[in-house]
Structure formats: structure tokens, C-alpha cells
């Protein structure tokens, strides 16, 4: 257990916790029935960066979850990694992750998962020793990350509680069941896909508009692909027709992605390259992608960061593995799904107030079912839950680190 926690501790102190933001506002919808130009120029999204100069540290709350405050400073710690033009969307992702962390810790507290303070002391001391060996000062590392010793200790304790819970739930029997039911997750099978992401936010009307736009794009692409096949000579065989259809679908899908997607992959026409069934994409995305055949498009796929249209372009079969050889990979997937199961059960019962960014005049928003004590969480089945980016960062719409 300590290995995972110490790995997280080093990650915190080395500033490696990163949240992916999508700071691109979609342009207006294309004219009905007309695909975009294949040469559409992408505007691109700049990836997270380390700040070159200090900025004022904000005060006050960013959110309150069942009476527990998340300080704006906690959001700011991660937000510093992003260029200013992407702060609005990055802040939403960071805050969503911090809220999930609080919900999980409240759940673990409610079911009385505890950690001996001496165990926490031991982990932190080992970290201090490692930093000293690397000629780094523990307190200065904390200061650079705007963490007090108390805050860092709370982070480590929360992670140790979570891992203890995972070990309790993730019995060999549960892990073996997950392994047996999902062979393509662990055998190395990979698919290559493109996607178009639209992030409509929480507004229900914008969600409907986003879903309608993606379905409209899919319809136009399918119509244009059918025209490309119909334009072939009457002597064209089935292979030639399929090649023409696939080429037109990929050409138009890439053009639409460059023009309308809000994911950094837009610069590559939405191409995500090859990825495995688990560990790279969030579960709803991966589940749908792996169900598609090459050059088949999905319906609208919803994840926590928006709506996606997915096109699979290739598939690489894997090699069967033995459970013992991939047991720790199975445990990691189990933990990811268990995390999502806890969040899904806690969130509807939570009283969450989200405050606007510093300097904004927007009023605080509140989601209201009350109640802090959660029901017992059922360990996820092999097909349940979502695969988030781990306990360290919220899952992006495509891969963990695009």
C-alpha cells in the first residue's frame, strides 16, 4: 500500500499533478447539409505550462461540499499550470476533481475507514529522507506548491484511506471476476480513433444543441460517404466501394474535428492514435470505441467533460494474458471504477455550493439534495463505472495525457 501513497506524495511535491483543460469555444454550426472544407485551419489549444512569474494567491472558498470548504487556493495550485486563456475551462475541471475528492473522503469517514497517524508519519518521513538524499528541502518544496504541512498531511491521509478501502473491496475474487469478464482490457488490444468534443457545460439547452450538432455532423458525413460510393464506376467491386466510403468518412470527420472540436487533438483532425481498452481513455469513451468496427461512427457519447462523436479507424488485436501477470493492472482498473461508483452514489445526496472565480460577479451556484451520510457502496461489476484518470486528476475526454 505504501508504494502507491509515496508515489502520490512525490507527485505532489514534484508538481506533477495536472488537469487537462479545453479552452476552445466552438464556432457557429455549419450550414445544414454542408461539410466543412477539408483544409480548415485549426486554432489549436496550448497545453498546460509551468508559470514563469508569480501571481497573487487568491483567498476565500472555491466550493463548499456538505459543509466542508475547498479553498480557492487549492484550485489555484493546479491552475498555475495553464496559460491564462484556458483558465476558465481548466478551473471547472480542477474544481470538479477536488469536489470528487471531498465526496470520497466524506464517504470513507462515514463508513469509518481510518489510518493510524503513525503510518502517515512513516510515509512522510520516508519522503523527507528521499528528498534529503536528492538535496531538496521538504519545507521549501511544500512552499513552492503553496501547501502547508497540515494540508499535505491531510492529502496523504486521504490517499491512504482510499487505498485501504480499495484493498478491502478488491479481493482476489473480485479482481479475477473483472479480469475474466473483460479480456480485451488486459490483452493489449488497441484501437485507433478520431473524435469531436463539444463541451456544453451544465446548461440543458446547450447540451441538447451540442448533441444535435454532433448527430448532424454524423448525418452529413454518412450522406457524403454514400455519394462518394455512388459516384464510382458500375464495375467497382465491394473492396473499392468500402475504400471510397472509408476515405470520405475520415476526410470529412477530420475536417469537422479541426473546425469544431474543443479537444487539443483537433489540430490532428481529432486523431488520438492507438490506445488500449483501459488506462488511457475514460470508460464511457473507451467502451464505445472498442465496440465499433473500423470506419464506424458512434452516436453521441457523454462523459464528464462533454459530448463526443467517435470514429474508429483501425484495430490491433492483443495477446491473451494470465491473471497473475496483470493482477496489478486489474487492481488499478478496479480502483478507478470503484472511485466512480463512490462519486456517483455520493453526488446526488450532496449539498454543493460552487463559488465564482475571484473577481467575477456571477453568484454562487448550489446543487441541493441534502444529506451527508451515504448508502453502502456496491463494489463495481466488470462493466460498471467509468475509468477516470486515477485518484490524482480528473479524466480528460480522450486520453490521460494527450
From TrEMBL:
GO MF: peptidyl-prolyl cis-trans isomerase activity
Compositional bias annotation for Low complexity: 35-46, 361-386
SUPFAM superfamilies for this protein: FKBP-like, Triger factor/SurA peptide-binding domain-like
Domain PpiC: 188-314
Residue segments, region Disordered: 24-46, 352-402
Keywords: Coiled coil, Isomerase, Rotamase
PROSITE patterns associated with the record: PPIC_PPIASE_2 (PS50198)
Xref: Gene3D superfamilies: 3.10.50.40, Porin chaperone SurA, peptide-binding domain
Any coiled-coil regions, as ranges: 124-155
Name by which UniProt lists this protein: Peptidylprolyl isomerase
Species this protein is from: Thermogemmata fonticola
